[in-house]
Amino acid sequence: MKSAPFQVRSRVVEDAAVIYPQGYLNNLAGEGLVNECGRYTRSGVKKIVVNFRETDIINSIGISLLLHIMEDLQTAGGTLCFTDMSKVQLDVFEMLGLTKYFRFFPDENGALQFLNVREG
Amino acid sequence: MELKKALFNISALADLGEEITSEKNFREKLQSLLYVILGTFLASKGAITCQERSGDKIAFAARKGFDNLSLDNIDVAGIRAAVKNEPYSVNSDPALVKAGVQIVTPLWVRNEFIGTIMLSRKFTSEAYAPEDFELLRVIAHQVAITLNNRSLFMNLTEQLNDNRKLYEEMRKIYHDTLQAFAAAIDAKDVYTRHHSQRVARYSVAIARELGWSEHDIEGIYVAGFLHDVGKLAISNEILNKKTPFTPKEMEEVRRHSLLSYKIISHIKFPWKDVEKIVKHHHERPDGTGYPDALSRNDLSEGAKVLALADSFDAMTSKRAYRDKMDLREALDELSRCLNKQFDDKIMLAFCKVLDKEIRGDLPIPNILPHLDKDFDLSLITALLEGIIQELSDGNEKD
Which H or E run includes B234? Predict the structure, then answer.
C-alpha cells in the first residue's frame, strides 16, 4: 500500500497542545507524531489533543505508536484526547478494548472543553 | 466482535507482509515489523533479537522499551531449548522477568536458531489469549524467514567480497609473474631493458584510443609483456651482437615470435587470442612479415597494435648496433612504413593518443613518460596533426 506522506502540525491552546497528524499513520514516519507529543510532554504540557480529521488510515503500526504516546503521557500524569476519528477507526479501538483507556470526542472543541481549556 | 478481531488480525498479517517485502533498509524494516507486532498484540514493549554471526549470543535487532534488559544475562540456551517458533510465557529466567519480558518466541528456520521475539505485558494488562499465541506463532515464522534471508544475504555478500579480494590478489600475482617474465626476457639484452613493459603500455594506449573494452585492453597488455618471451631460447651472443646479423643469425632471431607463441600456448588466458597476437607481432600488412607471411586482412587488430608498439619502442631505444632515433625521426619512419609494415588505422590511433598526451589531455600518459624530453613540442604536435589529418582524410575516402 502506498502511503501518503505523513506530516504533523501542532498548536498550543492555553496549557494544552493540539496536534494534527496528516496522512496515513501506518509506517515509521508516524514516529513524528510520537516525537511531537513527546516534545510537549517533556516541556511540561499535560493536556494533549490529537485531531485525526486528516488521518484516514491507522494500522497496527499506528496503534502501537498511539499506545506509546499514551504510556508516555500516563507516566507524566497527563491526559490524552482523540478527536475527529472516523467510525472505522473508532470501531478498531473498541474492538481492541482500548476505548476505556483513551478519551474520544467528536471534535476538537469538545476535547478542549473537557480539558477546561478555552480557545483565545 | 469476533469477526472484527479476526479481520484485524488478518489486516495485521497483511501489514507484516507489506513491511517484509518493502524496500526499506533492514533496520527500518525490523523496526516496522516490531511496531506491527506491538500494535497487533497491544504490547507496551518488545524486541526482535538476532543470533550473532559468531558465538552463541543474541543481539537486539529492533526494540521498543526493555532499556534495562541486558541480553548477556539471559539464558539463551533455555530459549533455544524451547519449542521452535512457539511463543511461551516467561517465568524461569530472572533477567527476562525483571526486565518485564512476558512472552518469548524462539525463532528458527529449519535447524538454525535465528533469534527471538520478546513481548512485554499488554497495554490493557489483559493476559495473552490462546489466539494471541496462535497468531504470534504465524508471525514468528515470517519474521524468522526474514531474518534468515538477511543472514544468508550477508553470508553471500561476505563470500562475494572474499572472492573478489582473492581474485584481486590472484590478478596481482598474475601480473607480478608476467612482469617477472618480462624482466627475465629483457635482462637477456642490456639494450632492451624494460622493452616489454613499454611495449605493453604503448599497446594499451593505442587499444584504449581504438575504443577497446577494458577486458581486451588487459589482454593486449599481457601480450605486450610476453611478446618476446621466445627470446629466452635464443643465445645471448646473438641477441647482444654489436655487428649486423648474418642471414643465419637473422633466421635464429626471427624464430622468437614462433617460440613465444609455443611457450605461451600452454597458458590458458582469460583474454582472447593473446598467443596469436604474440605470434604475429612481426607480421606486416604487405605480407612480408614472419613467421606466417600473413596479409593485411588475415592480421588481427591486436597483432597490428603490438607490431607498431614494438617497432616504435625499438626505434626510440638504443641498440647494440645503432643509436636511438628521436621522436620526430621515429614518427617519420613509422609514416614511411605505413601500409607496408604498419596499418594506417593503428597509426592514426597512435598519433592521436600521443598528441593527447603531449597536450596533457590524458590523466595517465602511457607513452610520453618513456620518451626523451628533448624534443620541440610544437614541432611534434604539428607533425602529429599533419599525420592525423592525412590519415583521417584517407580513412574518409575509404
Answer: none
Do B372 and B252 fall into the same domain? Answer: yes
Contact A16, A45 (CB under 8 A): yes
Tens digit of pLDDT at every position of chain A (120 positions): 455 578 999 999 999 999 999 988 888 888 999 999 999 999 999 999 999 999 988 889 999 999 999 999 999 999 999 999 999 889 989 988 899 899 999 999 999 999 988 776
Place of cell 595517465: B364
CATH number of A7-114: 3.30.750.24
CA distance B173 to chain A (A): 50
pLDDT in tens, B170-196: 888 888 888 888 888 877 776 777 899
ipTM: 0.89
Q: In chain A, which residues have their Cβ closer than 8 Å to the Cβ of B4?
A: 91-92, 95
**Beta strands B112-119 and B46-51, pairing class:** antiparallel
pTM for this entry: 0.65
Interface contact flag, B4 A91, Cβ < 8 Å = yes
Nearest to B4 among A27, A68, A95 (CB): A95
* CATH number, domain with residue B381: 1.10.3210.10
Asked if residue B15 is part of any domain, the answer here is yes
* Cα A50 from Cα A52, distance rounded (Å): 6
Q: Are residues B150 and B214 in the same domain?
A: no
* Closest chain A C-alpha to B47 CA, distance in angstroms: 13
- H or E element: which one contains A18? strand A16-22
Residue B288 lies in a domain: yes
Q: Tell me which residue range forms the domain holding B64.
A: 2-159
> Which grid coordinates are listed for B182?
618480462
Choose the mutation target among A64, A91, A96 for the interface with B, i.e. most B CBs under 10 Å.
A64
Structure confidence by residue, pLDDT tens digits, B27-56: 888 999 999 999 999 999 999 999 987 778
